[in-house]
Amino acid sequence: MNRRRLVDYVQLGFYWLSGLSVLLVLLAIIAYLVWRGGPQINLEFLLERPRGTPLGSAGGIFPAIKGTLWLVFWALFFSVPSGLVTAVFLSEYGSRWRIAGLLNLMIQSMAGIPSIITGLFAYALGVVQLGWGISLLAGGLALGIMIFPVIAVSTRDALQAVDNNYRLLACSLGVSELYALRRIILPRAMPGILAGILLATGYAAGATAPIMVTAAAIISSSSGAIFEPVMALPYHLYILFNEHISMDNAYATALILVVILLIINMMVLWLRSWQERIKQK
Amino acid sequence: MNAVEMSNFSAWYGRKAILDNISISFVNRSITAIVGPSGCGKTTLLRSINRTAEMEYAFSCRGDLQVFGKQVYQIKEVDTVRKQVGMVYQIPLALPLSIRENVLFGPRYHGIREQSRLDYIVEDCLRKVALWDEVKDRQCDAAGRLSGGQKQRLAMARVLAVEPQVLLLDEPCSSLDPASTGLIEELLTSLAEDLCVVIVTHNLFQARRIARQTLFMLDGSVIETGPTDALFSNPLDERTRAFFSGLIG
Ligand SMILES: Nc1ncnc2c1ncn2[C@@H]1O[C@H](COP(=O)(O)OP(=O)(O)OP(=O)(O)O)[C@@H](O)[C@H]1O
Ligand SMILES: [Mg+2]
């Protein structure tokens, strides 16, 4: 075996090793959660509200699941339309306007803001200034601000990944740029855009800090009323763990949260492969 | 009557001058060929006329450019210019739609709704580019699956469907076999009865076969222009002579 071959093998081995270790960490987390939390999970745990003293030591987590879904809904409500519009501006008109560079920079920096600070901002604005109180709406706003840069950037990149010649061909036929965008560019970028939104959804579903100060309650029916506080999976988990209420239930809650996130990420992967298939067409 | 008139027209990408003081005219109802070595600015010239060059980053231009007597760069709605001046590009690329919707992309936007009219446009345009027989049974298939040459002809059908008055073609036959090239040349000759056709070609024989006028470009300037036969048999400029005898480009 000559030297170059040896170097190749070492390199390949290194890739395998690092890939495997990442996979191992992930599997270890899931296995541990299944081992610790799995036995608690049953229909009652999924469909009942928390009970027992202290609260949460018995019963289930249904309002937390519901609350997380509501929070995600409002987060998307606040971030998807604005994120899409921003992305379209950046990708389609960006090169012609000087403020686009500034906007890019701002979005980049926004992505770097620690989520607790986003939460405090939403607290100051929504909870205090606008008088919403600790509420679903304020939590949705906090999460929305948090995931806005994710959506804007991923959508911008998905749009920019569309072959520029399509814009050229379409516009050469005398149609407006917006028409070309609607009929050609957006459909073509759609899987990538949806993947970005889903990724952001997962990010919002798992975030704890922004909702701690804006929306989360230890107990709530999470009815969906926008000015009421809600329960949320990550916060519930935090409470169970931090107040030593029930380690077993904490792990079970974590398992449910992770399963939800895994499902979301699987959908992202599937959308990505869909995008690849579209590209080859 | 001249369909396109340029005088002292210059264009830049960033700081780099691509077209240098071009003064030319394209006669209506006739075919003009543009020849010249790769990178001399042929595509940029065509894209300046239909105002798509400005879609590129940092494009700028100066000078006079008229299409049927109207100053192109003073028109507010670029869409109307682009509709009037159709262009087929170098890269054979279909819009990511069905074959049928490729042809109808322009007409639908420009307000044609009637089903029978749309059907007519599809068949008429595809027949003109000699594609109808190949695709009539799979009009609703994705156009991306067509071969390069078929895509090129589809591109032409797409442009014809908008009924332009000036037709710019950037090496439209580069991925076609001799038979389809012949058909396209026939088509262009018949189209030239009604409109102004400008074709960029690397095939000097093609220029000779179909073009009434030929224009030779080098490094962003028009070196020589004139009736095709005269240009080929008796070029006035040394550089034109060199190009035609295969010394440049
Ligand atoms: N978008 C762009 N940005 C910057 N420079 C460009 C751009 N497009 C073309 N150019 C430059 O402009 C010059 C002319 O290009 P153009 O495409 O017009 O040449 P061409 O004559 O069509 O060549 P070919 O026969 O190879 O198609 C080239 O030097 C090219 O590098
Ligand atoms: Mg070219």
Oligomeric status of the shown chains? heterodimer
How are the strands of the biggest sheet of chain A laid out side by side?
A: 1-2
Greatest chain-chain contact: A-B, 21 and 29 residues
CATH architecture of the domain at 2-92 and 166-244 in chain B: 3-Layer(aba) Sandwich
The total of beta strands of chain A comes to: 2
CATH architecture of the largest domain in chain A: Orthogonal Bundle
Short description:
The complex is a heterodimer of chains A (281) and B (249). Chain A has 11 helices and 2 strands. Chain A is mostly helical and 281 residues long.
Layout: helices, strands, pairs:
The complex is a heterodimer of chains A (281) and B (249).
Chain A: H1 3-37, H2 43-47, E1 50-51, E2 58-59, H3 62-93, H4 99-111, H5 115-129, H6 136-160, H7 164-172, H8 177-206, H9 209-212, H10 233-242, H11 247-280
Helix pairs in contact in A: 1-11, 3-6, 3-8, 3-10, 4-6, 5-6, 6-8, 7-8, 8-11, 10-11
Chain B: E1 2-13, E2 16-27, E3 30-35, H1 42-49, E4 59-67, E5 70-71, H2 78-84, E6 85-88, H3 99-109, H4 115-128, H5 132-135, H6 148-160, E7 166-170, H7 178-191, E8 196-200, H8 204-210, E9 213-218, E10 221-227, H9 228-233, H10 238-244
Parallel strand pairs in B: 3-8, 3-9, 6-7, 7-8
Antiparallel strand pairs in B: 1-2, 1-4, 4-5, 9-10
The site of adenosine-5'-triphosphate has 11 residues of chain B, from helix 1.
